[in-house]
Write a structure and sequence with these properties.
The structure holds 2 protein chains of 2 kinds.
Chain A (H helix, E strand, L loop, with lengths): L3 E4 L2 E4 L5 E7 L5 E7 L6 E7 L2 E4 L7 E4 L5 E6 L8 E8 L7 E2 L3 E5 L1
Parallel strand pairs in A: 2-11
Antiparallel strand pairs in A: 1-3, 3-8, 4-5, 4-9, 5-6, 7-8, 9-10, 9-11
Chain B lengths: L3 E2 L5 E4 L4 E7 L4 E9 L6 E7 L2 E5 L2 E6 L4 E6 L8 E9 L7 E2 L3 E6 L1
Parallel strand pairs in B: 2-11
Antiparallel strand pairs in B: 1-3, 3-8, 4-5, 4-9, 6-7, 7-8, 9-10, 9-11
Classes of the chains: A mainly beta, B mainly beta.
Chain lengths: ~110, ~110
């Protein structure tokens, strides 16, 4: 089945220790997104790729970086995680000019 | 004022009840209206979408859009315990960016 896969599902890191979250998709979608979702809050868009074109949201902290080496994979790097970065991180994909997003199961990040 | 407002609940109903979930919005450019269902510790999944105004029915679910009032609703008939989840509304405009703006979600609990 075509899907969006995120690894790991749960990640524990220490304050200030870099961490990388990964996302892969078999939908062959051009657009990939990274969202941060905290408890009882709307998903907050961090950035998205339209093919190889990277689009950063204006209020995304510099601490967050992303890489998309090919169509199928996308990575979220948090360079120096703070306690406030503990959240669920959601990867999503969509086709060109499509409002329909397909989400992965998320990675729950804990910062100790 | 946020672009999309949604009461976080929780909304607790007995099995078999009719559930009404609602969102209001301020951006008159929104044309696509979506409802996502998110189970605990999972990513959102697209449940229904509607373009512009009107109703759309899919089994026990009915989505309704009233653009004049900037108000959308999701009705669930004969609610089941398996419907217990968080329901997020999302909406986007046509032309330019299709990236949706999400509500914070309403937590629904259907008890047997």
């Amino acid at each position: 089945d075509a899907m969006v896969i995120q690894n790991p599902r749960y990640q524990v890191t220490q304050f200030g220790k870099p961490v990388t979250l990964s996302c892969s998709q078999t939908l062959n979608h051009n657009v990939m997104y990274w969202y941060q979702q905290k408890s009882s809050q709307a998903p907050k868009l961090l950035f998205h790729y339209y093919d190889k074109d990277f689009n950063n949201e204006a209020d995304t902290p510099d601490n967050f970086q992303s890489r998309r080496p090919n169509t199928s994979f996308c990575f979220l790097d948090i360079r120096s995680p703070g306690l406030g970065d503990a959240a669920m991180y959601l990867c999503a994909t969509s086709g060109d000019s499509s409002y329909e997003q397909y989400f992965g199961p998320g990675t729950r990040l804990t910062v100790t | 004022q946020k672009e999309v407002e949604q009461d976080p609940g929780p909304l607790s109903v007995p099995e078999g009840a009719i559930v009404s979930l609602n969102c209001t919005y301020s951006n008159s450019a929104f044309q696509y209206f979506m409802w996502y269902r998110q189970y605990s510790r999972k990513g959102p999944e697209l449940l229904m979408y509607t373009y512009s105004s009107g109703n759309k029915e899919d089994g026990r679910f009915t989505a309704q859009v009233d653009k004049s009032s900037k108000y959308i609703s999701l009705f669930i008939r004969d609610s089941q315990p398996s419907d217990s989840a968080t329901y997020l509304c999302a909406m986007s405009s046509s032309g330019g960016s299709y990236i949706p703006t999400f509500g914070r979600g309403t937590s629904l609990i259907v008890h047997p």
